Amino acid sequence: xxxxxxxxxxxxxxxxxxxxxxxxxxxxxxxxxxxxxxxxxxxxxxxxxxxxxxxxxxxxxxxxxxxxxxxxxxxxxxxxxxxxxxxxxxxxxxxxxxxxxxxxxxxxxxxxxxxxxxxxxxxxxxxxxxxxxxxxxxxxxxxxxxxxxxxxxxxxxxxxxxxxxxxxxxxxxxxxxxxxxxxxxxxxxxxxxxxxxxxxxxxxxxxxxxxxxxxxxxxxxxxxxxxxxxxxxxxxxxxxxxxxxxxxxxxxxxxxxxxxxxxxxxxxxxxxxxxxxxxxxxxxxxxxxxxxxxxxxxxxxxxxxxxxxxxxxxxxxxxxxxxxxxxxxxxxxxxxxxxxxxxxxxxxxxxxxxxxxxxxxxxxxxxxxxxxxxxxxxxxxxxxxxxxxxxxxxxxxxxxxxxxxxxxxxxxxxxxxxxxxxxxxxxxxxxxxxxxxxxxxx
Length: 442
Description:
By secondary structure, the chain is mainly beta. Helix content is 8%, strand content 49%.
């Protein structure tokens, strides 16, 4: 009997604990979690994962697929796309699509370029409706990227534009372009430089058109742009440009840029070359070559360290410096050098330079200078290479990509037991390593 009573009591205790746990669970409020949606935004298989709050989703129960569209069209031509609207609400929705300028967009898409069919439709609950959007670019349109929102519902503004695809909103971008008649083979110059030194760079061009094309390169300051923040811009007096004024049909040209780095420069120094190519097929930013330099100051004092020699054996000192490839077009090659002095209780010793050596790292990766422009035909959207075959040396794919180079100087002197001070003054380098070996030479 006692055994039976024990089992019953234990079972009632378990039930009471379970009930209490359930009561606690029910009494606690459950926070609403956002819905993670993998949204298809283009026919070529590009997706965007986005957190879409359920509250915003219920504003207008109208889903647009795709929610984003990117069209690339030449002046005088047109392209179209089809979007599908799905009404997941409980009521029939009347849809009248409207084109609205995109907030904070520099180039607003002209609504006269866009036609939408049908102009009005009713979508029953859980039903779908297709709309065809056609964009016709005028012959005289300027090249560039244009943007707009298309709202299929009565909701506009931040909520709709924030979640393209939902609330009946479509984000439409149009790239107006032409195949470039001039190929610019290096769109930037980047280098690690020494303050007060001069460097020379080249910009390689080719005219792939059947007519002469005129150019008039000039220097531009960039310090007023938000992108560069507190970085310092070069001045016009720091840059000398040598260039032909015309590139004949099918010919190549080289623009030489000589840069004098200010003596007080330290850190990031920038500038820009506007090639001023007189041809409609070259967009405003397609002919600007940015210059980005990391300037360092030659130190006034040498680096100092101390070591102890336990024997009178010869002392061998190796100094190693690394240069990294910044992808520049510099033709001013400088080799690091070092001034080495040792001092002990008896005075100063200048070791003898016995050898120098060079090292380098190379990877087999194709690094093409050929311009890749964003293009899209009727089949798909992708980056497409310039149409003209490339065969000249300056346009060949560079199979070997240089990573970094190293330079080593080896010094030796007759040793002497005791305390030593080593001084190293570096030139034309921003870094170095050293080693001290005390003992018989190899």
